[in-house]
Each structure stands twice: as C-alpha cells, then as structure tokens.
Amino acid sequence: MIILENIREGIKAVQTNTLRSVLTAMIIAIGITSLVGILTAIEGIQASINNSLSDLGANTFDVRTKRYDNRRSSGVEEKRYPAINYREARRFLDLYNSYGTPSLTTWVTGVAELSRGSKVTNPNMRIVGGDANILVVEGGELSQGRNFSQIEAQNGANVVIIGDEVYSNLFEKNENPVNQFITAYGIRFRVIGVLEKQGNIGGDSGLDRYFLVPLETARRVDPRRNLQYTITVAINDPTQMEYAMGQATGLMRSIRKDPLGEPDSFDVARNQSLAESLEEITGYLRMGGFGIGFITLLGASIGLMNIMLVSVTERTREIGVRKALGASPTKIRQQFLIEAIVITQMGGIGGIILGILVGNLIAKLLDADGFVIPWFWMMVGLLIGMFVGILSGYLPAYKASKLDPIESLRFE
Fold first, then answer.
1. Which of 18, 152, 198, 263 is most buried, most CB within 10 Å of its CB?
2. How many domains are contained in the chain?
C-alpha cells in the first residue's frame, strides 16, 4: 500500500509540474527513439536482405567436382579426383528425393561475345547450360517470355533465356526480344525469355550476363568438349539443410563408388557465405546502434538527474512537512525514485513508438519490405528506461531523504 501511495504521489507530482515533466520525458524519449529506431531499421533491412537472399538462391547447396589445389602434406601430393561426369550427375537427379529441388548446370564460358545484326556485346557474357529447374534454384524471375519446355530441354533446341545486360546490349529499350535471334559460336539461338534485372551483388553481376541454353544444347555447342557439371539443390525448409546435404553426400558416394573410410571424391558446399557475411555486418551495426543509443540515454539520464535535483531544492519545504508528519527517509527516497521512474517510462513508451515508426521509415527508404516490430528491443528500451530512472533519481532521492525537517521548514 505504501508503494501504491508513493506511485500516486509521484504521478501527482508529475501532473503538478506538467511542462517540466513533459520536457524531461522528451529527453528520455529522444534517447529511446535513437536506440529503438536504429535497431528497428537494422532489423527491417536484415529481414529484407534475408528475403532477397532466399530469392537469390541462398538456401542452396552444390554437389560439384572436388577442387585440386596442388598441395602437399608431409611430402605426399594431394590426390586428384575425376570430375563428376554427365552420367553420374543425371543418375543423382533421378535418385535424389530429399527436401529440395535439384538442378543440373554446366558452365560453357564466361568470355562469350554475342551478336545480333550489327550489335555486339562485350566479350564477358556467360554461356550457361541448365535444365528446367535452373530458374527455381538460381532465384531467377522472368520479366518476359517463358522457361524451357521439356521437349526443348530433352532435344537440345537452339533456344535461349537472356539476362538483362544481354538484353540492354542487343535490343532497344521497350523492344520485344522474344522470338528474335542472337548468334553465339556461329549458331543462331531463338530468344524465349528475359530475366529480370538482378543488379550487382558483391561485385558480381549475377544473372544479368547469362546466356542460358538447355543443358543438352550446351553439351553440343561447347567447343572444348570437356564440360564440368554442378548439381545445385534448393531447399524449401532451411532447417532441413544439414539433413539434405547428408542425403546428397551419401547418394553421390554410392554413385561414384567411393570406398568406405575414404574421403569424398567430390565437394558438397553450402551457398550461404553471402548471407553469413551480411549477418556479421548487421551484427556490428547492431552493436554500433546500441552504443549510440546508450550514449544518448546516458546524456538524457544526466539531464534527468539535474532536473530532479532542482525539483528537490524547490520542494524542500514539502519534504520538511512530510518528515515532520512522520515520513521516514525510506518513504521520501521511494517517492522521488518512483517519480523519476514514472517520467522515464512516459518517455520510454513515447520513444518506443517513435523509434518503431522512425526505424521502419528509414528501412522503407532503403527499399526494405514489411513492417518490423522489434519486441526484444522494445523490452530492452523499457528496462533501460527504468534503469535510467533509478540511476538518475537515486542521488536526488538520497539528498531529499537526508534533509533535516526543521531546516527544511525554514527554507524559503
């Protein structure tokens, strides 16, 4: 009951000095806004990045030929394993039935020069062969046209899906490229689709330079006749990634007849490095945002302490009357502490609302999707607000509790 009475007295004191209390609460609100706002913006951007990475095939893994680094260990040269051949890759696709969608691709060249009439691209276009699932695995979306049909994929038709950079190099703006012809390696390919622009990602233009042909077509037109094949599996449920990779490893060992106890003759690699790097960066951003918000709150706590000290001085006679009527030093301390906490919580709630709005606005300006409500950081903001109230209110409360009632009653 004593604490409830002190809470009522604290609220009454806040109402008595409305302007000062509101200004003080605004100081706290600005600190909480900076903390919650920065972290909300980071959470919103991170959520958007995760969605983008999922669209870009971040939840995938590759089964590919084991890399040979020409290293020696204790004088023994690293063993060179044969590349995954077409028959092995096809058998894997036929037997794999885990939690994902497999796709078989091959890299023909990354220095192709494409032409259409008098127009020629730079010699840095990428001729890639793939099956009908490649767009699902690579996270590619078509802005025009369609994907390969089963007949085109099986028969190796001279059809192609082009990236946005290929389209902009060989076609006029707003020109329809579907059913037009592009020449590569002296062979004419009919355009059946155009990929949406993906943009530059970590210095890589992604799918924008792709000249994507059916896998059987790539096998036929490759001038070197020594293609290497990569199986990429897109996982629908990221929590099943480890299980799916284990299934793929066991299946490929069986197909390639790797002896028991011997290392794998191929690599199974998770395509998550970009997501992990960005997660690490946003972790540092969170630390920086928390530090900035904490420093702002520290300044706000000093301002609150100063105002509470002024309040103690102004209410010296009131404190003297309370002590003369029997109020103990503990009750006086409680009253001023609760008053400081009430002010900080008013500012904290306002700061959280402003922080969520400002943070989501910043995230929206940076092309993030959705509306983020950071429940964890909201609780952190309220707890920090309470801590600031106790920290900044203790010294004034302690000073008030130590005032002599006789001297306080004489104060003018």
1. 198
2. 2
Same domain, 401 and 350: yes
82 and 225 together in one domain: yes
**Helices H / strands E in the chain, number of each:** 13, 14
Domain match, 218 and 346 both: no
b/e burial code for range 382-407 (CB count within 10 A of at least 16 → b): bebbeebbbbbbbebbebbbebeeee
Q: Rounded to an integer, what distance in angstroms lies between the CA atom of residue 230 and that of residue 346?
A: 59
Asked whether the whole model's pTM tops 0.85, one would answer: no
Residues with Cβ within 8 Å of 70's Cβ and at least 6 positions away in sequence, in order, are: 77, 78
Query: What is the span of the domain harbouring residue 11?
Result: 2-53+277-409
Is residue 285 domain-shared with residue 161, that is, in the same domain? no
H/E run at residue 375: helix 375-401
Q: What does DSSP say about strands 125-130 and 187-195: parallel, antiparallel, or unpaired? A: unpaired
Of 152, 149, 123, 128, the residue nearest 138 (C-alpha) = 128
Cβ distance 339 to 8 under 8 Å?
no
End-to-end CA distance of the chain: 32
In this prediction, residue 1 has a pLDDT band, given cuts at 50, 70 and 90, of very low
Q: Measure CA 241 to chain center.
A: 19
Q: What is the pLDDT of residues 339-350, one digit of tens each?
A: 777 777 778 888
> Which helix or strand (DSSP H or E) is residue 214 part of?
strand 210-214
Contact between residue 271 and residue 231 where contact means Cβ atoms under 8 Å apart: no
The residues pairing with 271 across neighbouring beta strands, listed in sequence order, are none
Overall size of the chain counted in residues: 412
